[in-house]
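[job 0412] stage=complex_fold ligand=nicotinamide-adenine-dinucleotide status=START
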Amino acid sequence: MTQNKVKGATILVTGGAGFIGSYVVEELLKYDPKKIIIIDNLIRGTHDNMRNFFNNPIVEFIEGDIRDTDLLEKCIEPCDFVFHMAALRINACAANPRDGFEVMIKATFELAELCVKHKIKKVIYSSSASVFGLAQHFPTPETDNPYDNQTFYGGAKLWGEQLFRSYKFMYSLDFAALRYFNAYGPRMDTDGKYTEVMIRWLDCIKDGKDPIIHGDGSTTMDFVYVRDIAKANVAALMADVTDENFNIGCGVETSLKELLVALLEVNNSNLTPVFLDVKTVNPVARRLADINKAKNLLQFEPNVALHEGLKELSEWYFEKKRRENL
Ligand SMILES: NC(=O)c1ccc[n+]([C@@H]2O[C@H](COP(=O)([O-])OP(=O)(O)OC[C@H]3O[C@@H](n4cnc5c(N)ncnc54)[C@H](O)[C@@H]3O)[C@@H](O)[C@H]2O)c1
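[job 0412] stage=complex_fold status=DONE, emitting structure tokens
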């Protein structure tokens, strides 16, 4: 049995008001931590995401920016463990690489320095499948090379992984990096500038408009449900692993066309897709994770299949829209 390392621990979650971060906080709360500190500037995170634990006395929410190094130090100082999840989206990095540099690279560097200074026992770093660009093999193992990535975001995530590797080597800072594939589920951003395609299609279903696919819909992704990702995060903390990268996906390849058909099915919708020109920041045509390493070393098992996850996403989306219209 793995030791419960969360019990009695003080834990920082950067970006804990965000989509995945809020589920990581909920998952951690099941294991009896002493305290969870969240730092989030709410650029995308929301109070609503934190609804289930906002009034829990164990959780302290600090509205602030990880670029504020003094504030970050105050957050890290009392902690045993750090989940580093605050980041800009891939499109936000492309739109403003300088912001991308400051948040994804500089603030992550300061965070690593502070983790060494304050003897953090382990960092769980949110990396991304974007580090691969278009991978060489499908399913893609962690060992595929990252030289085909073309995005600033993917480059920044890879740099973060390498930063933690070097800090493990130089300063014995333990870490695990989780390369999420395509995360989805309730609490996905529905109104921001960079919403995901599923949300744009749900908007179409709500408004009775035919949903748009940019390209021919053959681009594939590996969709992984947000609660499964949260479990992988906690497992990466608990397991006796360090200096490792893990793919966190479902191990199932789904084309955008198949995704749309599934989303229409779970919503009993008879709208028909409209195909328009390709329009994307991320030029990757195919994604499929080899998740054997996470299965073997973290006992990671994706539990939520696509139809079930899309159903939960849809129910949450329509309930949210209903509340907004009250
Ligand atoms: N969603 C995905 O499909 C996916 C895939 C791969 C990797 N990731 C990574 O997982 C992590 C969580 O992603 P998410 O999908 O929950 O995104 P998200 O945008 O919902 O969460 C990120 C959070 O960080 C906060 N944040 C951003 N900049 C900040 C700053 N300067 N200071 C403080 N807080 C800041 C945002 O307000 C947000 O709440 C990120 O590191 C992301 O890059 C996500």
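Residues 25 and 41 are 16 Å apart (CA to CA).
[job 0412] exit 0
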